[in-house]
């Protein structure tokens, strides 16, 4: 087990390295950069750009150096907690992201939790009642959530909440708490708002999850040990809980790592429509304005989160399933 | 088997004189024989048929894809024909009866008035203005398949009338026609994307699963890396790289390539996992002992074992590409307006005004939902059928 853990950790290091390299490359792929856009924009407005300042910033952030060197500067900064500087906001990335990070984590985790709570019972039911009308109905409902584009659902939600209930559901908290420090009122306000994005983002994940649970469980239910257990007179429910469900869970645990990026991606569009104070809109804006350190550091953060998620799910799998642990962890 | 003699009294020595058939126990009924002798694909078809929704879904998809070659003919207008007098006209209902009398399919014309208080265009139905829909008629001219000039449509508005069954958009273009044209792009984005990811997935996953070793390790890390970067930001960054000077068609191919490049990981994983378990099978060893080379083992013996699984999982990923296209177009980074796709149409439906005042502009979401649902059902059915020996 220890050998497996060490091996797994060692593998993570090159993964992180290459991920950062890819992110850096992708962000630098564009032929223009923030400064040239900035200068061009100012000139288009008939204003004169403060070239000395631009030159200073360019030097400060190593734009005169080759990209490879710049990359190592960036990664070196990341390693000791310096996430770089946002050109757009003229603040360190850490301060720009600030509170939004917690809200993003809150929204993402509530969404995942919501998805599991809904999808598991439905998936189990559909698998045990394959081809029944309830199976068709429930899977269709789940798929409907998958099929409706998020942004449209958010838009409709916003409109009808306003028309029918007179609710304003944009944002993640009441406006007066926006820049306020933490207080009970703020927490309550956030909790009162968070369920809407969770519901909207969760719909898609639920559909996919129902299908995964159903398919995996169905595969297990067809195996002979289930027939044996039934022939020996075990109660069907007990069989289900004791054997096939546990095996079907394996797949589910290995999925924990990859669920995060999809939740984050889905959340971005919804966050834009609902104007949530999460990181999604910030990131998209940063990508559009080529605010490279903000975008890059943030993407790197999300990627790291996922890689760690995969690591956790691998370790959990190894704990739960001796076959993986003994085979040295080839998945 | 012959019946035994009656068991009354003492048993006498008895030998049945009927010829003994050794196979009698093993013989199959014709019904069983049919099942046992059926080929793999036939078994799959039988199993697929049991998933009723999947059968319906495949029919719906066939119809939808069937419209692609005939968009110009099926749409009442051309995709970019502007009717400047009828901007954001609400849908016209199709009627059959006028004043209790049967007149055949027709629509009522609309009277237009600019509401001077809020500058909104008000359309009122004019019940005196009866416009019969013409069928197999001459309408907007087009180049059929870009080659043959033609102007025949399945249906067109009455002379001097209009036919906006699903309303018109902010330039007075018919939403229904645009939806028909949009199917071309939106339905094929997924196909081209999936071909790319299929190719990548099978090659990389296949090599990794069959050879293992360092290539396996490397590809596993690559998959993990691609997987760990959230998709939408990556799309965004890649879409931003495409030069603005590219023609809409090039952008379309760029987008499909991006969608495909992001999507192969799941498939590669599935291929690898299947190969890992299949390459240890006895029949593979047998093939190798008989002198089959690697390509032959791979393609002749291993691939048929799981190609059906691959097709099933590919079917399920097509919808995510279609949704990806709408998401990118929503952000304004996907396809651009001269191109008609459902995503581009929805891009115009993304503000509150539309929801409140012109809800028919959101109608392109209906085919999106329909296609995604049907692909999912089809994929489910295929997956259930993929392993027919259960």
TrEMBL record, chain A:
Coiled-coil annotated spans: none
Listed under GO cellular component are: plasma membrane
Query: How does the UniProt record describe the way this protein sits in the membrane?
Result: Multi-pass membrane protein
PROSITE patterns (alphabetical): ABC_TM1 (PS50928)
Out of the domains of life, which is the source? Bacteria
Q: Where are the transmembrane segments?
A: 9-29, 101-124, 136-161, 190-210, 247-274, 294-320
One GO-annotated biological process of the protein: transmembrane transport
CDD domains in the cross-refs: TM_PBP2
Residues of the ABC transmembrane type-1 domain: 101-311
> Where in the cell does this protein reside?
Cell membrane
Keyword annotations:
Cell membrane, Membrane, Transmembrane, Transmembrane helix, Transport
Similarity comment: family membership: Belongs to the binding-protein-dependent transport system permease family.
Quote the protein name from its UniProt record: ABC transporter permease
Organism from which the protein derives: Lichenifustis flavocetrariae
From TrEMBL, chain B:
Give all residue intervals belonging to the ABC transmembrane type-1 domain.
183-379
Example GO biological process term? transmembrane transport
User: Which species is the source of this protein?
Assistant: Lichenifustis flavocetrariae
Q: How does it sit in the membrane?
A: Multi-pass membrane protein
| The protein, known as | ABC transporter permease
Q: What Pfam families would the database entry show?
A: BPD_transp_1, OppC_N
Q: Name one GO cellular component term.
A: plasma membrane
**What does the UniProt entry say about where the protein is found?**
Cell membrane
Name the InterPro entries for this protein: MetI-like, MetI-like_sf, OppC_N
Alphabetically sorted, this entry's keywords are: Membrane, Transmembrane, Transmembrane helix, Transport
């Amino acid at each position: 087990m220890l050998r497996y853990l060490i091996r797994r950790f060692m593998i993570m290091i090159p993964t992180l390295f290459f991920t950062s390299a890819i992110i850096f490359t992708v962000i630098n792929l564009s032929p223009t950069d923030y400064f040239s856009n900035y200068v061009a924009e100012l000139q288009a407005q008939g204003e004169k750009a403060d070239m000395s300042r631009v030159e200073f910033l360019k030097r400060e952030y190593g734009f005169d150096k080759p990209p490879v060197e710049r990359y190592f500067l960036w990664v070196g900064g990341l390693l000791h907690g310096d996430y770089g500087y946002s050109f757009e906001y003229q603040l360190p990335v850490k301060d720009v992201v600030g509170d939004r990070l917690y809200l993003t984590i809150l929204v993402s985790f509530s969404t995942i939790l919501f998805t599991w709570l809904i999808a598991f019972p439905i998936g189990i039911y559909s698998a045990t009642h394959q081809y029944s009308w309830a199976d068709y109905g429930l899977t269709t409902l789940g798929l409907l959530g998958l099929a409706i584009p998020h942004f449209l659902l958010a838009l409709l939600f916003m409109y009808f909440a306003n028309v029918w209930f007179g609710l304003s559901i944009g944002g993640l908290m009441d406006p007066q708490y926006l820049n306020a420090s933490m207080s009970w009122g703020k927490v309550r306000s956030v909790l009162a708002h968070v369920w809407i994005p969770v519901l909207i983002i969760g719909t898609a994940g639920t559909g996919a999850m129902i299908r995964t649970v159903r398919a995996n469980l169905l595969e297990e239910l067809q195996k002979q040990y289930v027939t044996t257990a039934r022939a020996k007179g075990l109660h069907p429910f007990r069989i289900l809980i004791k054997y096939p469900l546990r095996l079907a869970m394996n797949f589910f645990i290995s999925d924990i790592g990859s669920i995060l990026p999809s939740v984050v991606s889905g959340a971005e569009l919804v966050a834009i429509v609902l104007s949530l104070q999460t990181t999604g809109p910030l990131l998209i804006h940063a990508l559009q304005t080529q605010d490279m350190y903000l975008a890059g550091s943030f993407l790197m953060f999300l990627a790291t989160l996922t890689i760690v998620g995969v690591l956790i799910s691998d370790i959990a799998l190894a704990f739960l399933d001796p076959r993986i642990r003994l085979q040295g962890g080839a998945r | 088997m012959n019946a035994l003699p009656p068991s009354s009294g003492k048993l006498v020595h008895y030998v049945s004189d009927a010829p003994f058939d050794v196979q009698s126990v093993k013989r199959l009924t014709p019904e069983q024989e049919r099942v046992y002798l059926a080929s793999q694909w036939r078994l799959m078809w039988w199993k697929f048929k049991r998933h009723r929704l999947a059968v319906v879904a495949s029919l719906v998809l066939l119809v939808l894809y069937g419209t692609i070659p005939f968009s110009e003919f099926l749409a009442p207008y051309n995709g970019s024909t502007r009717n400047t007098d009828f901007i954001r006209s609400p849908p016209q209902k199709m009627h059959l009866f006028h004043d209790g009398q049967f007149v055949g399919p027709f629509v009522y014309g609309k009277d237009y008035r600019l509401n001077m208080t809020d500058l909104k265009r008000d359309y009122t139905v004019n019940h005196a203005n009866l416009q019969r829909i013409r069928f197999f008629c001459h309408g907007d001219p087009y180049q059929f398949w870009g080659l043959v000039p033609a102007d025949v449509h399945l249906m067109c508005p009455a002379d001097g009338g209009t036919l906006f069954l699903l309303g018109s958009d902010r330039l007075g273009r018919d939403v229904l026609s645009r939806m028909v044209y949009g199917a071309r792009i939106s339905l094929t984005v997924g196909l081209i994307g999936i071909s790319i990811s299929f190719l990548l997935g099978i090659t990389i996953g296949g090599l990794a699963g069959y050879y293992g070793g360092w290539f396996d390790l490397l590809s596993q890390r690559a998959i993990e890396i691609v997987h760990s970067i959230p998709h939408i930001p990556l799309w965004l960054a890649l879409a931003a790289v495409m030069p603005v000077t590219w023609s809409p068609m090039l952008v379309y191919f760029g987008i499909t390539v991006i969608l495909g490049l992001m999507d192969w990981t799941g498939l590669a994983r599935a291929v690898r996992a299947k190969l890992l378990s299949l390459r240890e099978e006895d029949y593979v060893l047998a093939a190798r002992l008989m002198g089959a080379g690697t390509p032959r083992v791979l393609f002749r013996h291993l691939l048929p074992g799981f190609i059906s699984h691959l097709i099933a999982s590919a079917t399920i990923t097509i919808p995510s590409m279609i949704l990806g296209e709408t998401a990118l177009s929503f952000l304004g980074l996907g396809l651009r307006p001269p191109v008609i796709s459902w995503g581009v149409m929805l891009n115009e439906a993304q503000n509150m005004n539309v929801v409140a005042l012109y809800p028919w502009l959101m109608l392109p979401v209906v085919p999106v939902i329909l296609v995604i649902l049907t692909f999912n059902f089809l994929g489910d059915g295929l997956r259930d059928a993929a392993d027919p020996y259960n």
